[in-house]
Design brief:
The complex is a heterodimer. By secondary structure, chain A is mainly α. Helices cover 66% and strands 0% of the residues of chain A. Chain A has a single domain (33-514), classed as Cytochrome c oxidase-like, subunit I domain (Cytochrome C Oxidase, Chain A, Up-down Bundle), CATH 1.20.210. Chain A has 16 helices and no strands. In chain A, helix 2 runs antiparallel to helix 4 (96-110), helix 8 (203-235) packs antiparallel against helix 9 and helix 8 (203-235) runs parallel beside helix 10 (289-302). The longest helix of chain A has 35 residues, at 248-282. The radius of gyration of chain A is 23 Å and the shape is globular. Chain B is mainly α. Chain B is built from seven helices and two strands, in the order αααααββαα. The longest helix of chain B has 37 residues, at 149-185. The relative contact order of chain B is 0.15. The chains are: A mainly alpha, B mainly alpha. The interface between A and B is large, with 45 and 35 residues.
């Protein structure tokens, strides 16, 4: 190894001032306004909540090994699936990519020094923590049994569990999302570097923007829905009580008006990550840049028009159901367009199979399966049979876990060298990705079959003939759990023992790769001037015969 | 580079924060941020308005009955009070914009706060206490047994929830105005920099507009002076 340091980028991370060592002590972290440190605060909290939600899932899958239940009382099982849903949806999936990768990367990718409102960013993290504390308190005191969907009149009148504490936690955390979305939209509009036009932005930024639109417009509505349930529980006033003229279905409309767009909050950022991964690891421009950008916006907009497909069997008007069904088919189109564009990007690319790429390829396949199965659910007639069964559970886990979580892990692995200045051992990372892929499919594919055969969801017991598929699913879950623990180990290991990463270990394009790893607090010594299109990769085998 | 020499080199005012390159950029970002926040508030109130619309359509006679039990003169007075407070708020911003003295700005801010407090005073001490005395507060003291009793209870749920949510926003607005008054007394605002006034003014006007919707929807259902149906 040469003793002469020719390039400043070869200076080891510890000896250069960067955002991690610029100041020390717990107060410098808890009172930081640096978007990169706030991203790490979120990363720690979200990882913690992920393992809490995962623990609930593990207990559920152990319980379901036997048809009469192997582990807990039915009332406890109800609490397990409710807490799993509440924690995973509101405290992991919704904030995951936006609050960690989004917070870290949005300013860097557009050439800014920070987000538009750094103090608001810190406040959003404290709001998240406050909401999480309320919900964890509810969990420790005995949990809720309403499902993460809080349907009335059970949640408003009859449930004897800690509905208000949990709902309060979700209500409070919603404001964290709103502030994050607000921050991103203003930042992307007003703080792009000179030459960074809208159509030179990385597609991850388009995805963050579209996600933020949904944050802004959707989250307040679920806040009101939850608030009304709380009022009803405390004051017994009859908003959702048919006996005094209320309508329980009103809650479902208000709830799903947010919660359907919310699922796009959970997938759009992952799609943004995939655009970054697929281009870097094919060393090729994205196929159809503007179409992919517009499709993100189209998904955000159309997502607000389809909420009724969660309510086909509630007795709502069949004509409303027809319209919601048609619109739900429509919203699948922009997602499919993305899949075609990613595939076309791969075609004739110079492909390499590092861990982030494995996650990206897994995403494309599993998201496609999840999305296609959504079409069965969007069709009125088949939904009558499949609604309330494990088919739905499998459908959304294919998208949320096979899609969003794999996109999240792919992104964490891709930008880890930038965030920490260290490389993780890629062999272990690829192995873990494969374990996740195998474990995931073994867990959730049998659930499609269970649902088709008629096993209802949210049931603590089931008929004997479903046991084989349930055992397969539980076996898969144990493998999946191992697959998630392995990265925890080597990523933490790499923070201390990993080799220095250098500014651009992947040879990727993008402003964030033109800074040292880890970046300095102010991101750029001088604000860059952008002259190139996004994904300006050369050297791919486009012209080779 | 020390902040002082940075200012000398770049010539920017101390109001410019580090993440922005120019004051114009900062001002535009702040304004866009406030408009976006108001969009979330529209969706927030919109959820309740949606629920109100559904129940009014389902229980119109009940809502008419309940509405007629509200005191229109207090609602109308409050409407006038809030519109005047929006005027004084706009005058405060205009005073800053045209470089008037800080005491002018402070006067208009305090007038706005007085009017806002008057609104809350009328609502809490006249309307809500008499509603309580008449037994019209669902969940606490609801004794109405006349025609359309259950629907009237639903109406009063919405009345208290919507006006209560609005009042919460007004109280927050008063807090904002207090902060602005303190900032103004320290000479923070001048013709080149009054963004906090402007953005808080947007918030205040929004709270006013919500009331403009609430007043007819709650107080004027089914016509009042022989009108309507």
């Amino acid at each position: 190894m040469s003793t002469a340091v020719a390039d400043i980028h070869e200076v080891p991370a510890e000896s250069r001032v960067n955002y991690l060592n610029a100041s020390y002590g717990i107060k410098s972290w808890l009172f930081t306004t640096d978007h990169k440190r706030i991203a790490l605060l979120y990363l720690a909290s979200i990882t913690f909540m992920f393992f809490i939600g995962g623990a609930a899932a593990v207990l559920m899958r152990i319980h379901l090994i036997e048809p009469q239940g192997a582990l807990v009382q039915p009332e406890t099982y109800n609490k397990l699936f409710s807490m799993h849903g509440v924690v995973m949806v509101f405290f992991f999936l919704v904030p995951s990519i936006p609050a960690t990768l989004g917070n870290f990367l949005v300013p860097m990718m557009i050439g800014a020094r920070d987000l538009a409102f750094p103090k608001l960013n810190l406040i959003s993290w404290y709001i998240y923590i406050t909401g999480a504390i309320f919900t964890l308190y509810a969990m420790i005191s005995g949990g809720v049994d309403t499902g993460w969907t809080f349907y009335t009149p059970f949640s408003s009148l009859y449930s004897q569990t800690h509905v208000i504490a949990t709902a309060l936690g979700v209500f409070i955390t919603g404001f964290s999302s709103i502030l994050t979305g607000l921050n991103f939209i203003v930042t992307i509009h007003k703080m792009r570097a000179p030459g960074m036009t809208w159509f030179r932005l990385p597609l991850f930024i388009w995805a963050m923007y579209a996600t933020s639109v949904i944050f802004i417009l959707g989250t307040p509505v679920v806040a009101i829905a939850i608030f009304l349930v709380g009022l009803e529980r405390i004051f017994h006033v009859g908003i959702f009580d048919p006996a005094v003229g209320g309508d329980p279905l009103l809650f479902q409309h208000l709830f799903w008006f947010y919660s359907h767009p919310a699922v796009y909050i959970m997938i759009l950022p992952a799609m943004g990550v995939i655009s970054e991964l697929v281009t870097c690891f094919s060393k090729k421009r994205i196929f159809g840049y503007s179409i992919v950008a517009f499709s993100s916006m189209a998904i955000a907009i159309i997502s607000f028009l389809v909420w009724g497909h969660h309510m086909f069997v509630t007795g709502q008007s069949v004509y409303a159901g027809l319209i919601f069904s048609a619109l739900s088919f429509l919203v699948a189109i922009p997602s499919a367009i993305k899949v075609f564009n990613w595939t076309s990007t791969l075609y004739r690319g110079s492909i390499s199979y590092e861990a982030p790429m494995l996650y990206a390829l897994g995403f494309i396949g599993l998201f496609t399966m999840g999305g296609l199965t959504g079409l069965f659910l969007a069709s009125l007639a088949t939904d009558v049979h499949l609604n309330g069964t494990y088919f739905i559970v499998a459908h959304f886990h294919y998208i949320m876990v096979g899609g969003a979580v794999m996109g999240y892990l792919g992104g964490i692995h891709f930008w880890w060298p930038k965030i920490t200045g260290r490389l993780y051992p890629d062999a272990w990372a690829r192995f873990a990705a494969l374990v996740v892929f195998v474990g995931f499919n073994l867990t959730f594919f049998p659930q499609f079959m269970l649902g088709y055969l008629g096993m209802p969801r949210r049931y603590a017991v089931y008929p004997d003939e479903f046991q084989v598929l349930n055992v397969m699913s539980s076996a898969g879950a144990s493998i999946l759990g191992v697959g998630y623990l392995i990265p925890l180990i080597y990523l933490v290991w790499s923070m201390r023992y990993g080799p220095a990463a250098g500014p651009n270990p992947w040879g990727a394009r993008g402003l964030e790769w033109e800074t040292p790893s880890p970046p300095p607090t102010e991101n750029f010594e001088e604000i860059p001037v952008v002259t190139e299109e996004a994904y300006n990769y050369t050297g791919a085998r486009q012209t080779a015969g | 580079m020390s902040e002082h020499s940075a200012q000398m080199v770049h010539g920017h005012s101390p109001a410019l924060v580090h993440q922005f390159e120019t004051e114009d950029q900062q001002r535009e970002a702040g304004s866009l941020g406030m408009w976006l926040f108001l969009a979330t508030e529209v969706m927030f109130f919109g959820g309740v308005f949606m629920a109100y619309i559904v129940y009014r359509a389902l229980h119109l006679p009940d809502f008419i009955q309940g509405s007629h039990m509200l005191d229109v003169k207090f609602g109308a007075a409050n409407t006038a009070v809030l519109i005047c407070s929006s005027l004084t708020m706009a005058l405060a911003i205009h005073a800053a914009q045209t470089g008037k003295s800080k005491s002018t700005i402070i006067t208009y801010l305090i007038l706005t706060m007085i009017l806002g407090a008057a609104f809350l005073g009328i609502k809490f001490t006249f309307e809500w206490t008499s509603d309580w005395r008449e037994g019209l507060v669902p969940g606490f003291h609801f004794t109405y047994g006349g025609p359309y009793a259950s629907g009237v209870q639903l109406f009063f749920c919405f009345y208290f929830f919507m006006t209560g949510l609005h009042a919460l926003h007004m109280i927050t607005g008063l807090g904002l105005l207090t902060t602005l008054t303190v900032m103004a007394s320290r000479g923070r605002f001048r013709a080149e920099y009054f963004a906090p006034l402007e953005n808080s003014g947007l918030y205040w006007h929004f709270v006013d507009i919500v009331w403009i919707f609430l007043f007819p929807l709650l107080y004027l259902i089914g016509g009042r002076f022989g009108g309507g149906h």
